[in-house]
Amino acid sequence: MRLWLIGAYGAVSTTTFVGAKAVEEGLIDTAGLVTEMPQFKDVQETIPLVFEFGGHEIRNPEHDFYEAAVWQWERNKHYRREVLEEVSPSLKDVFAQPGTALNCGPGVNALDNLHPLEAEGYTVREIVEILIEDMAQFKNRDTVVINLASTEPLLPHAPEYHNTIDGLECAIDEDKKEFLSASILYAYAAIKNRIPYVNFTPSPGSSILALEKLAKKLKVPHAGNDGKTGETLVKTVLAPLFLYRNMPVEGWMSYNILGDDDGKVLSHTKNKESKTRSKDSVLSKTLGYQPYSICDIEFFPSLVDNKIAFDFIH
Prior knowledge:
- By secondary structure, the protein is α/β, with parallel strands linked by helices.
- The chain has two domains: about 1-225, NAD(P)-binding Rossmann-like Domain (Rossmann fold); about 230-314, Dihydrodipicolinate Reductase, domain 2 (2-Layer Sandwich), CATH 3.30.360.
- The chain is built from 13 helices and nine strands.
- A six-stranded parallel β-sheet has the order 3-2-1-4-5-6, covered by helices on one side. The chain has a three-stranded mixed β-sheet with strand order 8-7-9, with helices on one face.
- About 40% of the residues are buried.
């Protein structure tokens, strides 16, 4: 199976491909992998845990996947170096393609060594065609595109461009950059290639109505709007408990501190707003009403790749 990762050299992506190769070579166990549970036995037989990786990246274009993993390890040490070295032969000389950071906000723009496509002067249509071609060159019948990039700021809703396929095509053709973002362009490229798409971030991705319609028209599966692996995961576990026990929630305070590039990006208000809105929306969707809520995220550099969160529920 082939996985095309958006944000291919980030902390989540490097952990993904180093971990996947380590599982493949029997270096680590499969704890935490839902599809390794007995209920998914048929999936295991049909799709073994053997992956090829590619992707788009806006930083460090000179790096291959191995060098990107070393770069992340030196900053975060979120996997064992000896495991990385064991899987290095399958990561060397595999390069991500240059991607886009269109409207990814001040948090992303402040990162080091950026080389996005728009810096080369390409129009939106030209960027889209490059993304489509990159994915087309990589794909086979068992390919999935996964967005693991940093959280984008909230994008102003523009019904004339976001609600219909023709409107979206118009925005792309007329270079309406202010109404588009990187995650939308990546999702569009994946769907046009008829490649299933997963959004692991709170960014729009395939969730705008125009892309939902395009995916339905082309019969392309798409899913996701945040991985919910940390504090939000706690919300998704506890909120149903209170609902099913008929225990009204008066208020919910959640506070998160984290380091790494994720924390650095979310230290910028525009990028943070998108993430906190995603975290907060879980409550109203689960409980059926919106309790008084405080949700905040702060950058704490010395934590590096560690994250700490706590919730107070009344």
